[in-house]
Amino acid sequence: MVNVLCVKIGNKYSSVYVNNLLIMCKRNLTVPFKFFCYTDDSSNLHKDVCVIPFVDHKLDIIVHNKLFLFSYEVEQHLTDGPRLYFDLDLIIEKNVDFLLNYVCDDLTLIRSSWREEHKRGFPIFHHMLNSSCMVWKTNSLQKIWNHFISDPEFFSLKYHYGMDSFLSYECENIGINLAFFPERIFMSLQYGGVDFHEQMYYYKKHQKNFTRAHPHIRAQVSIVL
Hints:
By secondary structure, this protein is an alpha/beta fold. Helices cover 28% and strands 20% of the residues.
């Protein structure tokens, strides 16, 4: 049984986003799955959403609550089988059963190929990691949460833009490798396209937004962020 996970903390997203994600999963996942939402407000959620109650760790930044999915406490709510996580603001365009082929001993997530890559060394921006979709094995990554919660104030301050930079820089310190889905599965609607060099070439040549000018690119990808 696949455990599909999402997080709704605070008022940025309503229950509609959770219910829509459930519908997209029902349309685009043919493998048996159970749908979970870690949330502080379960009102108006679809009856098929299994609620994981919010645990208040007094974190100032909502995005770091997503790290709690790697905790022992959350594991107690889940079934055996892989974990598949989706952000609430993405659109699943077609079947995504194949994402489960990338479950491995590591944490598998998105490589942000639509961003310009910089030399690592400045934790806020210089990483190519996006955690909008992730897969991992049962009960395999609890030390991610344990590492974060060992000093949440420090990590929240150091990585105040979110957990992507935390994962990029801290996983290597605790012996967890990061793996990436293949290119051209995901597309960023905000930043344009699926490949930064493609985007810049087209923009410089035609002075047009790559994403709007190339709707066929969206037709090729499975998930739009």
